[in-house]
Amino acid sequence: MLKRGKKSITGKTIGPHGSQIKRIKPQSTRKIIRRYHFLLQRKQLLLRWLNFQDTSTLERDDNEIMELVTLKSPEFIKGWKIRGDSLKSRDLKIEEQLVKLPQSGKQNDPSQLCFYLGYIMKELKDESGINLYQEASRMGQDANRGGDSSKILIRWIKENEYDLTDSTALEIGSLSRYNVISTCGIFNSVTRIDLNNYNDEDGIIQQDFMERPIPKTDNNRFDLISCSLVLNFVPTPIERGSMCLRFSEFLRRDRPSYLFIVLPLPCINNSRYMTLDYFTEMFASLGYKRIKYHEAKKVCYFLFLFNEDDKSNESFKNYSRKHKLKDGPSMNNFSITLP
Ligand SMILES: C[S@@+](CC[C@H](N)C(=O)[O-])C[C@H]1O[C@@H](n2cnc3c(N)ncnc32)[C@H](O)[C@@H]1O
C-alpha cells in the first residue's frame, strides 16, 4: 500500500490520500509563504502611499484599483508587464528595491510607486503564484510536518469532553477535506470554504467568507468555526476587524458554540499593536470567552466560547482604532481594528 507522500511505482510523487501533487521542500514552503505575505504587505503600503487606502478603496476589487492606478500613471502597466509570462526567474533588482521600499519609498516619485504596484499585483494575481502559495500552505499541514492545526482543536474537544453531539462546523480557509476537523467524526457535517480552490480539491467551496450569506436561524448556524492562519492573510486591520465581527453571525446562539483561531505567533507576541491580553479582551467585547490557549514555536492557538449576551457594544468601540502597546526596532505592526 502507498503511504502518504511516497513515490508511486511510476516514480510520481503521491500527495495526501493519493492525489498527485508536487512536493515542495520545507525551506521552499516557508520561502513561498513568506514571499506571498511580503508582497501583500508591500501592496498595502503602496496603496497607502498612493492615497488609495481610504475606506472607500476597501470596497474596491483589484480590477478597479488597476484602472485607477493606470489613470494615475501608465508605469503601472510597465510594472505589470515587465516579467511577461516567464514565471521562473524573478526580477531580482525589483525584488531588492521592494525590500528597501520602507526606507526609500516616500521619496520615490508616484509613477515609480505605480510601477512597483503593477509588478506586485501581477505577481499576486498570477494563478500559478497563488496556486504555489496554497500548495505550500498545504504542504505545511502535511502530517510529516506536524499536521494541520485542527489536530489541537480536536484534542481539546476530546480532553474537555465538550458536548458537540449532532453539531456542524465551518472551516474558513480550508485547504483539504482530510484535515482532522473533517476526519475526526465529531461533527455531523463540516462546511469547508476558501477564497481560492485552484487545485479543485473536492468538498471545498470557493467562497469569500465576507460574502457568505448570513444565516437567519440557529439551524443554519454552526457550532464551531475554525479559522486557521486566515486573519493574518487578510490585508488590512479594518478588514480583519470586519471578519472578527462577522464570525458571530454564523455561530449558534441556542447552545454553546465555539471559535477556533490560529495565528502566527509574532502577530501576538511581537507586534506593536497587539498582545495576548489585548486580543483576548477585544474578543471578550465581541461576546467570546477564551477557554483554551496554546503557544507552539511558530503559531498560537485560541479556542473561544461564544455567548451572544456577553457582547458589549460599548467596550468594542475601544477597539475601533489601533493603540500602540509596545515598541521596539524588530517588532511588526500586525493589528486589528473593529469597524
Ligand atoms: C495561509 S492559508 C491557511 C490555510 C489553512 N487553514 C492552514 O491553517 O494552514 C490562508 C487561506 O485563507 C484563505 N482566505 C483568506 N481570506 C479568506 C476569506 N475572506 N474567505 C475564505 N478564505 C479566505 C486564503 O485563500 C488561503 O487559502
Automatic annotation (TrEMBL):
Q: Does the keyword NADP apply?
A: no
User: Known Pfam families for this protein?
Assistant: Bmt2 (PF11968)
* Major localization listed first in the record, in broad terms: nucleus
Q: Which Gene Ontology terms of cellular component type are present?
A: nucleolus
Task: Please give the superkingdom of this protein's source.
Answer: Eukaryota
The UniProt entry, under InterPro entries, shows: Bmt2/SAMTOR, SAM-dependent_MTases_sf
What does it do?
A: S-adenosyl-L-methionine-dependent methyltransferase that specifically methylates the N(1) position of an adenine present in helix 65 in 25S rRNA.
Q: Which family does it belong to?
A: Belongs to the BMT2 family.
UniProt name for this protein: 25S rRNA adenine-N(1) methyltransferase
What is the species listed in this Swiss-Prot or TrEMBL entry? Arxiozyma heterogenica
Q: Top-down, what is the taxonomic lineage of the species of origin?
A: Eukaryota, Fungi, Dikarya, Ascomycota, Saccharomycotina
The gene behind this protein is BMT2
